[in-house]
Amino acid sequence: MCKWGYRLGSDGKCGAQMVSLADLANSTSEELEILREQDNLIKYNVAMFSLWVTGFVTIFAGGAAFLYRKLHAHQEEESVYVPFLECD
After folding, report:
1. Given this model, what pLDDT does residue 18 score?
2. Residues linked to residue 49 through DSSP beta bridges, in sequence order
């Protein structure tokens, strides 16, 4: 059994898998469609991973900011504010 991306050669050793233009030229349209579908699924997986990571980072940062503000809240002191115009 070979690592991912490697194939067993005729000599019984694992070697890097090479996709040449000649291989693509001999492929049927169904095989090319499968390759396109796999590429699209990989792009989708990478995008979903990025969205999940972004979401977790955003939630963590928001929670940290909320917790910081909650724990470091200053109590209001008695205001020395006097209204400029007092209505009776």
Report:
1. 66
2. none
Q: Is 29 exposed, middle or buried (0-12, 13-18, 19+ CB in 10 A)?
A: exposed
CA distance 27 to 21: 10
φ, ψ for residue 56, nearest 5 deg: -65, -40
Report if pTM > 0.85. Answer: no
From CA 68, how far away is CA 57, in angstroms rounded?
A: 16
| Domain map (residue ranges) of the chain | 29-71
φ and ψ at 52, to 5 degrees? -65, -45
How does DSSP classify residue 36? H
Q: Are 20 and 12 in contact (CB under 8 A)?
A: no
Indicate if the alpha-carbon torsion angle 35, 40, 46, 49 is positive or negative: negative
